[in-house]
Amino acid sequence: MSDHVYKVIELVGSSSKSSDDAIQQAIAKAGTSLHNLDWFEVVETRGHITEGKVGHYQVKIKVGFRLD
Amino acid sequence: MSDHVYKVIELVGSSSKSSDDAIQQAIAKAGTSLHNLDWFEVVETRGHITEGKVGHYQVKIKVGFRLD
Amino acid sequence: MSDHVYKVIELVGSSSKSSDDAIQQAIAKAGTSLHNLDWFEVVETRGHITEGKVGHYQVKIKVGFRLD
Amino acid sequence: MSDHVYKVIELVGSSSKSSDDAIQQAIAKAGTSLHNLDWFEVVETRGHITEGKVGHYQVKIKVGFRLD
Amino acid sequence: MSDHVYKVIELVGSSSKSSDDAIQQAIAKAGTSLHNLDWFEVVETRGHITEGKVGHYQVKIKVGFRLD
Amino acid sequence: MSDHVYKVIELVGSSSKSSDDAIQQAIAKAGTSLHNLDWFEVVETRGHITEGKVGHYQVKIKVGFRLD
Amino acid sequence: MSDHVYKVIELVGSSSKSSDDAIQQAIAKAGTSLHNLDWFEVVETRGHITEGKVGHYQVKIKVGFRLD
Amino acid sequence: MSDHVYKVIELVGSSSKSSDDAIQQAIAKAGTSLHNLDWFEVVETRGHITEGKVGHYQVKIKVGFRLD
Amino acid sequence: MSDHVYKVIELVGSSSKSSDDAIQQAIAKAGTSLHNLDWFEVVETRGHITEGKVGHYQVKIKVGFRLD
Amino acid sequence: MSDHVYKVIELVGSSSKSSDDAIQQAIAKAGTSLHNLDWFEVVETRGHITEGKVGHYQVKIKVGFRLD
Amino acid sequence: MSDHVYKVIELVGSSSKSSDDAIQQAIAKAGTSLHNLDWFEVVETRGHITEGKVGHYQVKIKVGFRLD
Amino acid sequence: MSDHVYKVIELVGSSSKSSDDAIQQAIAKAGTSLHNLDWFEVVETRGHITEGKVGHYQVKIKVGFRLD
Predict the structure, then answer these.
(1) Is L12 on the interface with J (CB under 8 A)?
(2) Range of the domain at G22
(3) What is the CATH number of the domain that holds E32?
């Protein structure tokens, strides 16, 4: 990491499969409009319960990317 | 909440009327340019004091909205 | 407060009127089944947004009550 | 979420398979005695180590459910 | 805010009316002996329960004022 | 700790003798109605002051116990 | 606690005897110049080590007292 | 600060010179595309180590600016 | 856990497979030089992004082990 | 540090030069009216932005001093 | 404290007698292999419950010592 | 950062010159006995006051390094 400036945005990914997949969903979405994605940090893990099971994992992450 | 991705932004609303109104001001402003606003979370409540009274409540909130 | 033991439970009250009213709703509900309610502490304030306005304030509180 | 009141309880699920499964174990247990389970929040992830491997994931969660 | 030094004190205001009013009570009290009150920050909101209702909102705030 | 689920409750014990005794008071009370008490975690230590001395130590703890 | 305003100050008591005694030392000192001391909250517990033993417990507390 | 709404974004500035300079780098970058920058808050200070020295200070800040 | 003393160290495991595997990697590494590993606690979950996907999960954990 | 009691106050120093200088300004001011200043702790670093640069660093510190 | 560098390690002491004694146990153990122990900070207090009483207090502390 | 494991240690550097220099002192010391130092994170900034000025900045950092 050289003398760059990075922007950090916050996203919530959701997935009915796993908490890791919820992270992947959020990053995949970010990648459709942003370049230079560099790192993520998990802020919060939660989810909805449906019929006595985890319906969706919802993982709030920060995603950092380099400004050109 | 199905398999969507949400973005979370941070705003500070201010109001001379009440702390609840400061939240409303921030959300109303967000609604002028963003669709699908879904939830908010209060991050911090502070304010300025003028002549020995609360001059403005300033409430920092996170606002989540669904990405299309 | 003498040599008593207190139990602390966590509730989320919701209200379309105000964040204070959301606290009141939670305490009123607790009072229908518990006696000796003594104090509350606000843990988190959030809410849903509907049509660009606060739809419901949702306030998570802890409520303490004395065990007999 | 309309004008309801929710109760939040804290559980620790444990699983030798995965941290997601530890969440599922806790929610499944809660569902045997409680209705209207609505959401969960992960509070803490820890575990025991046995023979140089993760023996059990232990995930502390909050579970929210609507009071009738 | 130029090159000044500010002192920050902590107060708890209480009010049977509202949490905003508890903030106002604390600031009004501070204003009777201190000048140059500049800002406040909410640290904690809690209260006493009497007869199944909020008896008093108790809001702990920090108040900043400029030292001459 | 095998594949069990644990519930965690929050209690405040108070004691005029010591902060450790306040913990003991809370656990003793819990033991009168709950089995399988397993661990505790101190959340907060506070107390009342009477005549310029500690009147009561009040220790808020979480208590975990195994669900059958 | 009625409609009063309270001031909260921060003190560090130290004691070579015990952490509870460090709290007592701080409160006793506060009582020599302040009236209406009402409650304390433990903020931090630390200490110095001398010759491989606890030399002094140092407990930082907040002390609340009613303003007349 | 009157009845305005502010947006808060998160940036990471990096600098091989000093942690203050890392803050300046982030703010200078923000100023190339945003007007009305008003305040910053330091969220986290970290950095990379190269050859046993600080290679880059990396300071994560929040930057607030007024929405027109 | 009897009258023992435990040491707690902090490790970051990384894995391209899953966040659980990152925990396993860190514990396996610790086990090559330390005995009596007893428990772990997750401190932080983050990772690198490569080509719009999670490249590596990086999980910072504390690992506790008994001193002989 | 022997069996003394310390008071801790909170100050915000501001400086257009550096964050370290903001700390120095606050301590210098405290020294004009208080004796026995012993230590400080940084609580928060923030500042104002003017013309796309840091206008003032504002550092909130706690300052501890021995009570006679 | 002059221009030295200190290392900080984390230990958990346990004791069936008191939480203060758990701190002492951890420090005594550290003193058998380390010199120049200087200070400690309490990070967490918890414990096991056996037969409805505190079986062991477990206090996690940080211990700082000067590197030669 | 590939599939490696990193260890994180905690150090306190002190310096009479600046807070940045206190970080440098700690890292330089670590470099005399450890290889592969990779990153640092500031945990706490504090210091001693001597004659109404900052005597020493004391910065507690975490330092991460790759295990071979």
Answers:
(1) no
(2) 6-66
(3) 3.30.1660.10
Q: Considering only alpha carbons, which residue of chain D is nearest residue F39? A: D12
Cα nearest neighbour of J38 on chain G: G12
Establish if J25 belongs to a structural domain: yes
CA-to-CA distance for F8 and F40, rounded, in angstroms? 9
Beta strands in L1-68 (DSSP E): 5-15, 37-50, 53-66
| CB proximity B11 to H under 8 Å | yes
What's this model's pTM, rounded to 2 decimal places? Answer: 0.96
**Cβ pair A32, H54 in contact under 8 A:** no
Per-residue confidence (pLDDT) for residue F2, from 0 to 100: 54
**Are I62 and K29 in contact (CB < 8 Å)?**
no
Whether residue A65 contacts residue A35, with contact meaning beta carbons closer than 8 Å, is answered with: yes
Distance of CA F52 to the CA centre of its chain: 25
Query: What pLDDT shows up at residue K2?
Result: 54
DSSP chain H: --S-EEEEEEEEEEESS-HHHHHHHHHHHHHTT-S-EEEEEEEEEEEEEETTEEEEEEEEEEEEEE--
Give me the interface pTM, i.e. the ipTM: 0.96
User: pLDDT digits over L23-58, tens only?
Assistant: 999 999 999 999 999 999 999 999 999 999 999 999
Using only C-alpha atoms, chain I has a radius of gyration, in whole angstroms, of 14
Cβ distance J52 to H24 less than 8 Å, yes or no, reads no
At K21-51, the pLDDT tens digits run 999 999 999 999 999 999 999 999 999 999 9
Q: Domain tally for chain G?
A: 1
Residue I1 in this model has a pLDDT that exceeds 60: no
How far away is chain D from the Cα of I62, in angstroms, using its nearest Cα?
9
G and F touching (3 or more beta-carbon pairs closer than 8 Å):
yes
Q: Is residue C10 part of a domain?
A: yes
Say if A57 is an interface residue toward chain D (CB within 8 Å).
Answer: yes
- What is the C-alpha separation between E18 and G68, in angstroms, rounded? 22
Query: Positive or negative CA dihedral for H15, H20, H25, H29?
Result: positive
Asked if residue H1 belongs to a domain, the reply is: no
Q: What phi and psi, each to the nearest 5 degrees, are found at residue C28?
A: -60, -40
Task: Classify residue E1: in a domain, yes or no.
Answer: no
Q: Which residue has the tokens 């907040």?
A: G62
Model pLDDT, residue L2: 54
